[in-house]
User: Fold these one by one.
Assistant:
Number 1:
Amino acid sequence: MNEALLSLKDVSQVYTSNGRTNEALKHIDLTIYHGECLGIVGQSGSGKSTLGKMISLIDQPSWGEIYYKGNKIEFRDRYIYPIRKDIQYIFQEPIGAFSPRKKIKKFLLEPYINFKLCPKKEALAQIEYCLKQVGLDQSCLNKYPHQLSGGQLQRIVIARTLSLSPKLIVCDEMTSALDVIVQDEILTLMKKLQVENQLTLVFISHDLSLVQRFCDRTMVLLEGEQVVCLDSQNFGTSTHPYIQLLKDSIL
Ligand SMILES: Nc1ncnc2c1ncn2[C@@H]1O[C@H](COP(=O)(O)OP(=O)(O)OP(=O)(O)O)[C@@H](O)[C@H]1O
Ligand SMILES: [Mg+2]
């Protein structure tokens, strides 16, 4: 097994709204290793996105600790800011990531400005490289989001993510808004990018068969609890009743 990249120790998340509390994640222990592709599956509401947001440090857990490269995360700006670039999150609906009035060029330049990565000319050269990596060319730069397809937009989101040279990408249902053929193309692309860029991936999905095909290990969540985390190839032999249920049903 490779070195640990990120670990969650006894992490719980409680949401409170209208005076009611909801324990969305319960005592999660999880280590994500360098270079692996980890799948997270579970029914709607089981806490997958909540866990994804803990892993990508978007949200702070109510309890528990998170370690990145062996160091405990302190959720204070000056500590967390340099790590934010390393861990990126890709959401389900690519269109939601875009502002309808901003051209693709502006969208792709934003991380260079936000993280003060390099001068504009250099940034544009890097953007061109990232677009090539996702199978697009510069012709999209002067377009608006509505002039592109869902699959093309998701590729642009991936290109923007790559421009930050992340170590870990959390993909939250990133293909579920796309048709089956485009979904397959995007997953094949992610696998290629994982190797080319030495990425670690966390892949959140409803689709157990897709996760098993794509991921080295798969973690199953049920009502905020970790049911099991297994090598994907060992799922076939698992006798856990909930795994049986998942295998027999389409979530
Ligand atoms: N910001 C929030 N405030 C309050 N409750 C929340 C918040 N985010 C999630 N929840 C609740 O936490 C639970 C887990 O939600 P989560 O979005 O993590 O589930 P999920 O497994 O990603 O579901 P889906 O497959 O539908 O995306 C749900 O009961 C949800 O209503
Ligand atoms: Mg979700």
Number 2:
Amino acid sequence: MTWLITGGAGYIGAHVARIMADAGERVIALDDLSAGVPHRLPTDIPLIQGSSLDGELLKRTFAEHTVTGVVHLAARKQVGESVAQPTHYYQENVGGLATLLEAVAEAGIERFLFSSSAAVYGNPDVDLITEDTPCAPMSPYGETKLTGEWLVRAAGRAHGIATVCLRYFNVAGAAAPELADTGVFNVVPMVFDRLTRDEAPRIFGDDYPTPDGTCVRDYIHVADLAEAHLAAARRLTAAGATGDLTVNIGRGEGVSVRELVTLIGEVTGDTRPAIVEPRRPGDAPRAVASAALAAKELGWTARRGVREMVESAWRGWRLHHGG
Ligand SMILES: NC(=O)c1ccc[n+]([C@@H]2O[C@H](COP(=O)([O-])OP(=O)(O)OC[C@H]3O[C@@H](n4cnc5c(N)ncnc54)[C@H](O)[C@@H]3O)[C@@H](O)[C@H]2O)c1
């Protein structure tokens, strides 16, 4: 098998590329470097600089490298930006996927893995979110992920491509400091950013109907997430693999924002109290995955805890930002 990993120079993509290469798969990466960092990839993984919207480049790449499977992570991922620029998000995330699937079908590639997100669920009022929980995304970003899943499944059926959609919950941590998330869009780097600026962490709302009043999330270590991709890739390459699978990738354990901020204080040694600000519109009180289907279908369960996520993320933050 040779796998093309789109978004392979990104935070999650580089983890996936490395773990798959370490497991003996042939891997090449494609990334337009809009957010990617080339040196996240070891030199033995070729990086093609270009966009998933460039059908000709995809065609050439598939032929030159005899690609037999695709892991599609390339996407724009900022919820707020997607609200301000919905057409751009649909063009990149849905248009890019359609172009890619067309090239995949034309090249006769039969395995496809898609990066989806818990954002497809929106704000469901359930204790554990299962894959049968109705989807109601609350942002154009979430809509592009849900539309993407529909497109992946429809193309799979039409062209005989076996597909897996992984719905990631809140990704954190780093397998090595140089692989850390360099963006400041998720809660862990956001708190690090505040502390590095000598400012108190912010908590948006402490009057939610949760045990300590702050929002509860399901955090997943990026190294566990990368292992889930390897498990999904192995499922796709098993003899006779057909059809589609859509599965949550989380730990099935809720951690409140206040618990997370306290843990970050312990790890960084900066225990200044958080400031509580008003709720942000659209934040669900609780979003925790049922991890049962992933265990059953992929034989995969997360192994790393939240402290390991925060510690490894902090090592990465200090490498990139000091502190
Ligand atoms: N980080 C999270 O918490 C999270 C949660 C759920 C889902 N996801 C999804 O996981 C995937 C990877 O996210 P990430 O956190 O690693 O983000 P990231 O921004 O670090 O990685 C995305 C990569 O894709 C590249 N890219 C973007 N558009 C492209 C295009 N049209 N063609 C080629 N390359 C392109 C970027 O340069 C970047 O390297 C995305 O699809 C994202 O929506 C992430």
